[in-house]
Design goal:
Layout lengths: L2 H13 L4 H13 L1 H19 L7 H14 L5 H6 L3 H22 L13 H9 L4
């Protein structure tokens, strides 16, 4: 590693974000380069000083203001707007899919077979059959 590479990676090194091999190469360079070692020491002292500062509580209204600003920035198209952007072919496909779903639900929701108590029938199925429910 050269000094330019060290400058690029020094923040990540102080934050502990480098891989073990990158840390080894960086440490080896710092041992041999007094200028980079000085920059690393200054950066480490600055980060340590910032870590020692007390936490500053955020104002209570900040959350509400931030949430309002976030919601204003989001554009949520309504159903009518979504439908208008569809081509005629896509509208037909959506209607067909909805109709197919309704038909499948009607067919699957209606039982065409009556359960008869047999050896393979559970007590719950027998109860449902006697009440007219067909699971």
């Amino acid at each position: 590693m050269n000094c330019q590479d060290i400058d690029k990676r020094l923040d990540a090194w102080v934050d502990g974000e480098l891989s073990a091999s990158a840390v080894d190469r960086l440490t080896h360079h710092l041992e041999n380069c007094p200028a980079c070692r000085y920059r690393a020491q200054v950066l480490r002292e600055m980060v340590d000083a910032l870590d020692r500062l007390p936490a500053v509580p955020a104002p209570s209204a900040l959350f509400r203001q931030t949430l309002k600003a976030y919601r204003r920035g989001i554009h949520r198209p309504g159903m009518a707007e979504w439908w208008q952007h569809l081509s005629l072919m896509m509208r037909s496909a959506v209607c067909g899919a909805a109709l197919a779903g309704l038909l499948c639900g009607a067919v699957l929701g209606t039982s065409l077979v009556t359960l008869v108590p047999s050896a393979g029938t559970s007590p719950y199925q027998t109860l449902y059959a006697s009440e007219g429910f067909y699971p």
